[in-house]
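Possible regression after last week's pipeline update?

I re-ran a chain I had predicted before the update to compare outputs. Posting the input and the new output here so someone can diff against the archived version. Not blocking, just want to make sure nothing changed silently.
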Amino acid sequence: MAADEIRGEGHGTAPVPLSVLDLVTVGAGHTATEALRTGVALSRLAERRGYHRYWVAEHHSMPGVASSSPAVILAHIAAHTERIRLGSGGVMLPNHAPLVIAEQFGTLEALAPGRIDLGLGRAPGTDGATAAALRRTDHLNEGADDFPQQLAELTRFLDDDFPDGHPYRRIHAVPGPIQATSPGGVQSPHRPPLWLLGSSGFSARLAGMLGLPFAFAHHFSAQNTVPALDLYRESFRPSAVLDAPYALIGVAALATDDEREARRQVLAAALNMVRLRTGRPGLVPTPEEAEAYAFSPMEQDFISSWNANVIHGTPDEVRSGLDDLHKRTGADELMITSNAHSGDVRVRSYELIADAYGLPTA
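New output (post-update):
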């Protein structure tokens, strides 16, 4: 697999490639339809302005997050874009049979050849009860044994190379390589590159050992970012995929024309997280609701800690914060997630960040 299917190219004055992580958030007073339309607008803006990739993340049973089906969303986005890389950040592999994921992303690759990334996580992306409903079992295992086995199985389905004697030897993920070996068959030379996602050291080490690119969730696990990236680099072994480590980090950042508006939007997003963490998930509240909310001392401590890792303010302030984060971590790519109540505010944030770095305008 060519490294240029993984490694991005920076534009303007950005220190590294910039990308988009879209949680497809739904604000109070808005619908999932509106959130998905915002995703289309955001992906098209990102393509036009030189962002490297657009990813969506699998979440379940969260009213304020409409990204339960990444493959469906990515198929829709693929129909509205032409060049930007599209992918999952990520698909939570334990929630699915590996064959199903291979089929879904083989289909996406057929729809958008050479543009699809398959990022994989081992967390459920939801609470335990919902994970049990997804997997139709109460025995949830996110441990060291199951995930590497599932990953190996998925890889073999994508490459269609189960060995002779394996019970899956005659099972083929379609679309996929089997079509090239059928009479008259012609198959795309591309297959979605695999990424491992994580918020701790497990996937960092595994990605390094396998020579795969790694994406770290700095936006909700900032204290583990540098240790995880160090572990990834120390564990890295060259592979047919990469000859050197390549790590991106997810970054919460929101730029607005007015600094006060950035603080209002970030407070609303933080209130949404308070409710999620206390078992009350809902739609992203309005800034007015957040300003009127009576935070308890414990909630206020959480807000202060959470927002300390959200880069927000004017475009120049956000650019400075992103530059500092890059210097601290040495990340090869910054994947920005801009969370706010309004879709228009989110799209505007990416436009302002692009302007701040002098990214292309067409």
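Follow-up from reviewer: compared with the archived run. The CA atoms of residues 272 and 284 lie 5 Å apart. Marking as no regression found.
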